[in-house]
UniProtKB/TrEMBL annotation:
Natural source organism: Evansella alkalicola
Protein name: Transposase
Length: 484
């Protein structure tokens, strides 16, 4: 019988490590990487043997349904493509490294490899990626009873005692540690040319509420409606008391130019030191099997790039966490459109020509989405709403058509991407904010917009809209997509 799933959250604490402990941890992470890669290699062999069998080809041609799924499940078990069969495979390997890797940690590594390979089996990915030297960034246990565990302010793992750093005034951490610890994860990050180690305690329950300056707990979000129109680089938010039009992860843009310059510098250096590895047209010559040569300056630049990318990740997550808290302070009944950001990242398939007779670029929003991570904001909101037994209300985009709908005329009018304002005759409204307003007034069936609610709240929305536009006009620079 499967275990009942309970809500959980993560508390991250910095580990105070000595130099000799860092050496031991580095060795253990590399052993974990080798076990992970060995599991992926074994699964690839088993999957290859499965695909060559006649029974697999027969079942593959069957009509999709419960019977086909049952036969596939039997084949997977027969050929060892199951999580627990991988646990048996990893057992003798772990025995060789028992001084460094315990049994439960090795099983979690095997489970992690199986979950990655399962995506390939279910056609959710094209291939699995083996981890290179230094690319294993976390290991975890199965419970806080054995293996990697937390006890009395220390993380214990096979003879290593790693103290955690908790500040005296960190009330949140002290409250969180009162909850039951499910399991412990040791994570490392490359920071300023060295690995820094952290303990991530996965705790049962919901995060404790933070205290304000008066020593009282912060209030829970009100039962109010909020509409979110999220784009590739901006987001519009409309509530009953406030509207917001802002950039997604604004602090990321400060480092984006530096990252691009270093990437170009790395490419030039690599081409200069490896001329035979490239063809005349500039593409990589795959027939050349010589080793790549990297200069000392290249390695220094690569370390700089790694640090900037880490800072970008931190800034992006911090911006999203702050914005999500702002949105939740406006209300907890949140309406958003369902969007395929992966589809927006892909290159266009068809070749098109613009009005001037020139070919349009096939590149779309890959870099922008990679930098701004709009789906991450929605994931953070979803996670925080679960703590209060709620979830995002994802409206039917095909039926709602918020960017085309006019609630005054109850009609749809397709607009071009560069048209950022809607002229109603008596006023002009920014397009993204109007879409957020319509989403806020969506019916509970998530397939229609409530016109009566729109008519009742439009004047209040209009006054809040004008205030937000005035605020944006005072800023030195705003994204072109806002149209301000």
């Amino acid at each position: 019988m499967a275990k009942a799933k309970t809500p959980s959250y993560v508390l991250t604490l910095r580990l105070k490590t000595e130099l000799y402990q860092e050496d031991i941890l580095f060795k253990r992470f590399e052993l974990a990487r080798n076990i992970h890669n060995a599991c992926l290699g074994e699964l690839s062999k088993r999957y290859g043997a499965l695909k060559q069998s006649r029974r697999y080809r027969t079942v593959y041609k069957m009509e999709k349904g419960k019977e086909r799924n049952r036969l596939f499940s039997e084949l997977n078990n027969e050929f060892g493509l199951a999580e627990y069969s991988l646990h048996e495979f990893v057992k003798p390997m772990q025995h060789q490294f028992k001084k460094n890797i315990d049994a439960f940690t090795s099983q979690k590594i095997a489970t992690r490899a199986f979950n990655a390979f399962e995506k390939l089996m279910f056609k959710q990915g094209k291939k699995v990626h083996f981890k290179k030297h230094g690319e294993m960034y976390s290991v975890e246990g199965k419970s806080n009873a054995t293996g990697i565990r937390y006890m009395d302010g220390n993380v214990l793992w096979n003879g290593l005692v790693l103290p955690t750093i908790i500040k005296k005034n960190d009330v949140y951490a002290k409250l969180a540690l009162k909850d039951k610890i499910k399991f412990v994860r040791i994570k490392r990050e490359w920071t300023k040319n060295k690995f820094v180690y952290y303990a991530q305690l996965v705790l049962e329950g919901v995060p404790p509420k933070k205290y304000n300056d008066k020593g009282m707990k912060d209030k829970s979000p009100d039962q109010k409606r909020v509409g979110i129109d999220i784009g590739t680089s901006t987001v519009a938010v409309c509530s009953e008391t406030k509207v917001i039009l802002t950039e997604l992860a604004p602090n990321v843009a400060q480092l984006d130019k530096k990252i691009r310059n270093i990437q170009r510098s790395l490419d030039r250096s690599k081409r200069a030191t490896n001329p035979l590895k490239y063809k005349e047209d500039g593409t990589i010559n795959k027939s050349n099997k010589d080793k790549w040569i990297y200069s000392k300056r290249y390695m220094k630049k690569k370390a700089q790039l790694k640090e900037l990318q880490r800072l970008n990740r931190v800034k992006r997550k911090q911006d999203h966490e702050t914005l999500s808290n702002t949105i939740l302070s406006l209300g907890n009944i949140i309406f958003v459109e369902t969007m395929s950001f992966k589809g927006l990242q892909r290159r266009a398939i068809e070749t098109t020509v613009n009005e001037k007779g020139k070919f349009n670029k096939k590149k779309r929003f890959g870099r922008t989405i990679g930098n701004r991570a709009p789906s991450m904001l929605l994931e953070i909101l979803e996670r925080k709403l679960k703590y209060i037994d709620r979830s995002l209300n994802k409206v039917n985009t095909a039926l709602i058509k918020a960017s085309q709908y006019n609630h005054f005329t109850n009609s749809y009018e397709k607009k071009r991407l560069h048209e950022r304002w809607i002229d109603f005759g008596f006023c002009k409204i920014q397009r993204d904010l109007y879409s957020a307003f319509l989403l806020m007034n969506c019916k509970n069936n998530l397939t229609e917009i409530d016109r009566d609610r729109c008519n009742q709240s439009f004047e209040q929305f209009r006054s809040m809209h004008d205030l937000e536009i005035e605020r944006l006009k005072l800023k030195e620079k705003t994204p072109v997509s806002m149209g301000v």
